[in-house]
Amino acid sequence: MTIREFMSDDHRHCDDLFALAEQAAADGSLTRARSAFGDFQMAMLRHFLGEEQTLFPAFEERTGMRMGPTQVMRMEHEQMRELMVAAVDALAQDDAESFLGQLETLLIMMQQHNMKEENVLYPMCDQQLAAEQDSLIERLQGDLQTA
């Protein structure tokens, strides 16, 4: 398995959790939406942590590129964190309309972000980090499970 395959699979996992939260809110069940969004948010934060503490530093160390694609991804992670907080706030206020609006914005951002990672950054990681790929994936698995 490549880094691209492993991390793209985690994107799909997060997308599935996101869809459950969105569907629950659309069905009018804010209780289910809170639970599902909590699961999604935890998965996303674990994903970000794996990238920011394991993958990105390894890539930056190998390539010397600290102001390139990883910096952009970190900035986008922060924007998505802010959107997730706004979505949680909307749920806390029982505001399904605002929650769904936050999700719409978050979905667009996630789709664009994932495309950049899957089509640009992860293939670069596969190329640059091939020698340590197995150990990196093992560390990423740990990040995604225990963060």
UniProtKB/TrEMBL annotation:
Q: For the Hemerythrin-like domain, which residue ranges apply?
A: 3-125
Cite the InterPro entries for this sequence.
Hemerythrin-like
Top-level lineage group: Bacteria
Kindly provide the name given to this protein in its UniProt entry.
Answer: Hemerythrin domain-containing protein
Organism of origin is Azonexus hydrophilus
